[in-house]
Amino acid sequence: MRLRSFASLGFMLLMALTPLVALAQPQPLDRIVAVVNKDAIMQSQLEDRVTQVSQQMASRNVPVPDEDDLRRQVLDRMIVEQIQLQMAERANVSIDDTQLNAAVRDIAKNNDMSLDEFADSLEADGMSLAAVREQVRREMLLRQVQQSQVASRVNVTDREVDRYLEQQGESSDTAYHLEHILVSLPESPTPEQVEQAQAEAHDLYRQLQDGADFQQLATADSDGEQALSGGDLGWRRGDQLPTIFADVVPQLADGEVSEPVRSPSGFHLVKRIETRGGQGEQKTVVTENQVRHILIGTNPNRNDEQAESLAEDIRQRIAGGESFAELAQQYSDDDGSALDGGELGWVRPGQMVPAFEDAVDDMSVGELSQPVRSRFGYHVIELEDRRQQDVTRDAQREQVRQTLFQRKVNDELEAWTQEIRSGAYIDNRLEDSQQ
């Protein structure tokens, strides 16, 4: 069994997985192609990444640009990645093995494989699971940095959600497949820089009107995050369009390219590839469980074995007729629920840690659980009631909140990328050698 195209794994592996270079092959002398603050990017690292990106583009039928253009684009992405990894190091951000193992298992699952089958397929394709794990860890670090730095700037208020629902009513039932080219601007650009970027964007627009291939131009010239995917933004529902495209895309015909659109991060060209209707709003019903629990955690005076033993003793006392509420007030380490006799009220899927939720799902109303282990300690759980609840309105509001949040994040991301670049010391020696 061979591994499917990595394109099916999403962007996380598109840029992360780098083929191993056979040690037996003679290696040319290495050199530094860029210095990013205190770190160097080597020619060998760049060439490995260029090879990998070329293979990915070919597998997705994205036209490969001129070799120098591709090398420049790849190095530019590597420079931005290196800045973010340095930010992660300074902030002591790390990915523990539990998170990493879960991510790798998800990748294997997305390819309909067990972890062992995934490892075998990687080996057959000349890669090792250990190498892939480190590349995935690296990509997860980048995502965490972006989440902490960009998402922390974004807030969506209840009033914004209300206003959106008033203006839009139900969610848009139209989705658009889009491609995108960005001609970026530096932070606080001069009038000359704006004029130059605008002229470049109009030149690209002219080339596209004359029949140039959008994906090839995007790969060679776009400063956007999706440049090495041919500028492909994928499918976006009408209510999920970036703010700057919300008024532009619906006015385009399929196959049409917009004129340059200005934003703080630069000038954008967007192409509407295809349109399809959505399914509209659907009723959302979830199972809610009314539960109470007693949490026995570990501490300097109570190890894991002692915590489990105490939890089992409490469970037996409840089963023998003692008051759940009184024992919760006396023993529970969950301060938030202990004073209420361990009551957690009605909880929905996703609100509790997985081990707790899995145990409740398997319980019958009135049942008392065995001690359930989670990262917080040992839980003794009682399922008091269960019901089906229509949460359509709540789900709609949450969907709108996430839509507005993602719009704001997308608007911020390009500007943040330019900001961190302008604040870093970058010595791009590849550009010097190509001049």
Automatic annotation (TrEMBL):
Keywords attached to this entry: Chaperone, Isomerase, Periplasm, Repeat, Rotamase, Signal
Protein name according to UniProt: Chaperone SurA
Keyword Chaperone: yes
Keyword DNA damage assigned: no
Localization in the cell: Periplasm
E.C. numbers: 5.2.1.8
Signal peptide: 1-24
Native source organism of the sequence: Chromohalobacter moromii
An MF annotation (GO) of this entry: unfolded protein binding
